[in-house]
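Section 3.1 - Work completed
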Amino acid sequence: MSTREAAIARRTRETDISLKLLVDGSGQSSISTGVGFADHMLDLMCFWGGFDLELECKGDLEIDSHHTLEDIALCLGQALSEALGDRKGINRVGFAKVPMDEALAEVVIDLSGRPYLMFDDELLPAVIAGDEKDVWREFFKSFALRAGMNLHIKLEYGRNGHHLLEAVFKALGMALGHAVVLGREGVSSTKGSIDR
């Protein structure tokens, strides 16, 4: 089996990103985005998904974290898509439901090649770790777009923004970890191909 990995470099006037993703890893990560909360969330996703990730980003944080999180998600999604290649043999679908203290989140994904995001963030407080909650919608939207992933995130209940997003990122990691498992013959599609 070939190694499922990808390296992405992206430099704009807003961000400078280098990223290496190993799908069949051990959950090890080295992440430096300049946004401590994002580092924590991505570390959780990698640990619970079994992915190895090296990520460094220098962004225009003097403005806010929007460009940084959006561009990281674009690079991460691109890396996942490139690492999976033609997606033959993968489970394709994954799901997980994870509690974090008073919060409960469910994530369901389909690595179908067709990007779509369903995310009702009504339960999230307006500001989490100093950032508007909207930056996380942009993160998930950009990740789903570049990964070619149908991504549904449901916040069942909870009050604390940190707990809610921590449950989401753990569930996202677990769902992705299940979806990328190789265990089928050919492509997981009755039509014989996955849209790319």
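Second construct:
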Amino acid sequence: MDQKVLVLNGDYTAITLCSVQKAFVLLYLEKAELIAKSEHGVLRTVSRAYPKPSIIRLQRYVRVPYKGIALSRHNVMKRDNFECQYCGSTKNLTLDHVMPRSRGGDSSWSNLLTACTRCNHAKGHHTPQEAGLTIRQQPKKPTLTGFLKLSAGTLDQNWHPYLQ
């Protein structure tokens, strides 16, 4: 039951992921319709079996006022796949400012990346070029669909048309 379900808005745009339980409640209350079933089993009650949802669509269009991803420590590390962007280590991770704050760098998607404490300490208050470090992947703000792909872990084949 730890699978995720893709939730589409009334206009078929992807807006979020939810649990199978939440998706089933939305379907049962007729607030959503089933778009695609999961190949991984069914939901059973005492008297009935229901298809496990993979994609649901809300019956009504819901206005989503802000489609950005919140800038947080966890979201930056998730974007960077929980790896140091200098050496690839997955141990003792922290955040690093590409342009150090002491030199006017801000806390933004394009200036923060995941670094291990060893690389972060070696970089100090220098830029990566000054410290002789190369960045594996340039930091940038993730898109909503890209972030949904990261959050899902394994992607259901049915989701691909909606996460383009």
